[in-house]
Amino acid sequence: MELKKLKEELIKFRKERDWEQFHDPKNLAEAIAIESGELLEKFLWKTVEQSKKIDKERIENIKSEVSDILNYCIYLAEELEFDIIEEAYKKIGKNAVKYPVDKAKGNAKKYTKF
Q: Cα-Cα-Cα-Cα dihedral of 62, 16, 31, 110, to 10°?
């Protein structure tokens, strides 16, 4: 599985640099939020149409921010000892119940507003 390999590479990378000491759940959650803010900044003041037409330089920056977010999420799951893929599948199942196709298809309303 690709994610398992990615996780192993990330853990090895972190261990070689002795960064585990900085990767407590609080700091990792903050890092995710900060990187998410940096991703949002790439779209600041853009229209929906402009956000769909991204130049090569900006797409590279976006890829970098998304990768940072993913990596910190993997680190956080590791620190809290849960399987991020298993939890993602569980969340899909929960959302399928909350957002049945017949009510949610083409609809942006929150499930409590159906």
A: 70
CB atoms within 10 A of CB 72: 22
> Is this model's pTM higher than 0.85 or not?
yes
- Looking at the chain, the domain(s) classified CATH 1.10.287.1080 span 2-82
**Cα of 72 vs its chain's centroid, Å:** 8
Query: First vs last Cα of the chain: how many Å apart?
Result: 38
pLDDT in tens, the chain (114 residues): 699 999 999 999 999 999 999 999 999 999 999 999 999 999 999 999 999 999 999 999 999 999 999 999 999 999 999 999 999 999 999 999 999 999 999 999 999 999
Contact 14, 8 (CB under 8 A): no
For the domain spanning 2-82, the CATH number is 1.10.287.1080
Count Cβ atoms below 10 Å from residue 88 Cβ, excluding itself.
12
